[in-house]
Automatic annotation (TrEMBL):
One of its GO terms (molecular function) is RNA polymerase II general transcription initiation factor activity. The keyword Signal does not apply. InterPro entries: TAF7, TAFII55_prot_cons_reg. It is found in: Nucleus. Residues 111-131, 197-254 are annotated as: Disordered. It comes from Salarias fasciatus (Jewelled blenny). The keyword Nucleus applies. Residues 17-181 form the TAFII55 protein conserved region domain. One of its GO terms (cellular component) is transcription factor TFIID complex. Keywords: Coiled coil, Nucleus, Transcription, Transcription regulation. Belongs to the TAF7 family. This is TAFII55 protein conserved region domain-containing protein.
């Protein structure tokens, strides 16, 4: 059984995956290559050869022993290649993402670029080098400059060193826990003008039972000193961890103070929202009354117009008695109705 399995492994050689690319040639050479492919002759390898240089981007394509300089470029998007036998059923064969562009006036042996190192400057050079082989167009005429017209630029991510920030925040909280007095100041970027006019929003006194510290304006560090503390981290990581363990309970108390501050600010926001809702409701009632007044004015104007028309008709009547009775009915409609 061992000999059988050994022979089976020799027979089952690994399959080589098929890779495809688009070959773009000048018009006269494209027709020649098309005839070579359709003829399926045995000497096809002698008439059409493709040779790539070590950089993997440049090479030489020979059509009937005529050398053409070629360059391998990246297409804007994937293209699916299909094959058919009966022109009814199509089978997908590969995803095409590159194109080999051949030219007559190109350099057959371009100078090789030196390999770059691992420093950031060399990485930037590699990116610039890759941009040279990016193809901005599709394979059809309507897709000219499609990369610039249909694909937006990739947004750059702003990476923040979160561990360093967490350590600095922890150190500042422990420093506040040791301080005699602490002052909180919340600054919103969108409300800087309002903060300058009405003062800071966060100068709130906390109770001694929750934080164990008095909130005041006595011995407080200026804003510039706090910024210097953020910029220059003097303590080492081990000291920060020991200091954080020592003042763990005090950090929790400071967190409770932060929760109380957030809760008070939320209550203020809810009060402002309710006042805004009440003003909106009052304005809606005023609008309804205004609509009713306008409708009554329109009805009054219509009644006056009708009365004027009736008076003109009465003036045209020749019978004097009928004219007098009509005027009386027009002036006193309720009395004439009772009579």
């Amino acid at each position: 059984s061992a000999s059988k399995t050994g022979s089976k492994n020799k027979e089952d050689a690994p399959y080589e995956l098929e890779s495809q690319f688009v070959l773009r040639l000048p018009l006269e050479y494209a027709s020649t290559v098309r005839r070579i492919a359709q003829s399926s002759s045995m000497n096809m390898k002698d008439r059409l050869t493709i040779e790539l240089h070590p950089d993997g981007r440049h090479g030489i394509v020979r059509v009937d022993r005529v050398p053409l300089a070629c360059k391998l470029v990246d297409l804007p998007c994937m293209i699916e290649s299909l094959k058919t036998v009966d022109k009814k059923t199509f089978y997908k064969t590969a995803d095409v993402c590159q194109m080999l562009v051949c030219t007559l006036d190109g350099d057959l042996y371009p100078p090789l670029e030196e390999p770059t190192g691992t420093d950031p400057k060399s990485k930037k050079k590699d990116k610039d080098k890759d941009k040279k082989f990016v193809w901005n167009h599709g394979i059809t005429s309507p897709l000219k400059n499609t990369r610039k017209r249909r694909f937006r630029k990739t947004a750059k991510k702003k990476y923040i060193e979160s561990p360093d920030v967490e350590k600095e925040v922890k150190r500042l909280l422990s420093t506040d826990a040791e301080a005699v007095s602490v002052r909180w100041e919340i600054i919103a970027e969108d409300e800087l003008k309002e903060a300058d006019q009405h003062g800071s929003l966060g100068n709130l006194d906390s109770s001694p039972g929750t934080s164990g510290h008095k909130m005041g304006h006595g011995s407080t560090a200026p804003r510039d000193e706090l910024r210097e503390i953020f910029n220059d981290i003097s303590s080492s990581s081990e000291d920060e961890e020991d200091e954080g363990d020592r003042h763990e309970d005090e950090d929790l108390n400071i967190m409770d103070t932060e929760d109380d501050l957030v809760r008070q600010l939320q209550d203020k926001l809810n009060e402002s929202d309710s006042a805004q809702h009440e003003s909106d409701r009052n304005s809606q009632i005023v609008m309804e009354y205004q609509v009713q007044i306008n409708s009554i004015k329109a009805k009054l104007q219509e009644t006056r117009t009708r009365k004027k028309q009736q008076e003109e008709l009465i003036m045209r009547v020749d019978n004097q008695a009928l004219k007098v009775s009509s005027k009386h009915a027009l002036l006193f409609p309720s009395q004439s109705f009772r009579n």
